[in-house]
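Q: Entry one of two.
A:
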Amino acid sequence: MRTSPRRNASLFVSLVAAGALAVGCGSAKDSQFGDGSGAGEGQLASGEGFAGGSGAQPVSGASGGPGGAGAVGNVDPNSACASSNAGAALEPVSLVFMIDRSGSMVEVDDDDVSALRWNPVVSGLTSFFGDAASANVSASLAFFPKNEITVSNRSCQRNRDCRSGESCSNNVCIDVEMACDASAYAQQVVPMTQLPSATPFASAFTATRPSGGTPTAPALSGAIAAAKAVKDAGKNVAVVLATDGQPNNCSSSVSAVEAAAAAGLADGIRTYVIGVGPSTGNLNSFASNGGTTSAIMIPTNDAAQVSADLIKAVNQIANSLLGCTYGLPAPPSGQTLDVNAVNVNFTPAGAASKTLPYSADCANADGWHYDDAKAPTQVVLCGGSCAAAQAAVGAKLDIIFGCATAVPSGGVDPSGNVR
């Protein structure tokens, strides 16, 4: 994982190949893994293998954080029960950007505001898309409003040769209307692209000139539809909506946008909102309905600061998605995963390793849980352990296979049993 102080993702993740580091007395009968044919033999009692393989039981006590797990004993990767361990890698994140290119991004009451709105937005986002620190992020880009062009079969020399509402372009009458259908906004100008990759995004911005209204409702619904397709492919994805004002056009009432954000959240898609400019009205409610509490507001009184604040905002969004979810390495070759025989060790730089307690509902904020205990693919840190991991420069997270999962006395293990 590439670390970046800007993203505050200072947790160093060791990238040991899953199952490559065999430790302890590594037969299947010594561990809680099966041979791939069914339930494993030699199941260990709760707590066996804790504290260097001594069989110590979990201990009760005040909840500690990654700096001191407190509620459980430590699991030693060199203990007899451990069949292997592997570094846990942060899950990559995908961001679907929907950017407001309405006329107010460049002009308000006949005043040119492009230097304080559109230009720094372009500069800040292009910098983010091309930043090496964005290497664990993929992004797509679309704009709103979007125009739909209908080309007639009538030739023309000038606009007056065309019907009302049409214009003459390349000697043909055309009708340009604002797109109001969400499907139009689901089409991305730049498809999902692994970062860093500034060129396609910079080209898209260069080819775009702000004009028109603010049809936020269909634009957000389209972005959510695009994100849903990414989510259905198994990716960690969210929508980033950046706008400078209140919705209008295409029935884009405040309640309609709130409903679109809420519908997205119901489908598992969060909407982050970045407000650019002083007239940002109900953006907090859009973010709240989209599951992200409140909008990130960027004042527009200094162009350089707008760009810097935008980069900071996008990194904040990426960090919120990157910082707590780790891919679960594969169990040792030929063995099946026992969800009750996985432990998560957190090691601050230059300090002793600590085993994080399992907490299915994160009632223990310093613990961890699976994304799905019945079919786990990810390890998710709870709030306290996540914050500590992000703040610990040079730390690493390791997954230990084979020893009974560390659960505080009286706690519930991944299978739902009280220890």
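Q: Entry two of two.
A:
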Amino acid sequence: MKPSEYRSKTRIYVDILESVRREGGKARFTKILYSANLSYHRLQRYLAELEEKGLLIKLTDAESNVTWYELTEKAYKLLAEFQKIKRLLDAFGLSI
């Protein structure tokens, strides 16, 4: 994707989920922020939406007060299906 290209909401969701997946299935907010290339407030909104859709779980360690996001099984399935669709579209010279 070229830097000047518009990202759809679906593409942003996938970018966030992929950034968490690359971190081993769980990642802290700041890591996702830089990896998904979003502003603080936009990322907060998207993370809340992904939680509502059952794709991410927000966890906090009570002792250290550290918060991170974990992928759900549903998120792994979504990412696998997305990759299939992306490969199909790429084969026809199309993009998401």
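A: Comment on entry two: The two ends are 9 Å apart (CA to CA). Strands lie at 26-27, 56-60, 67-71.
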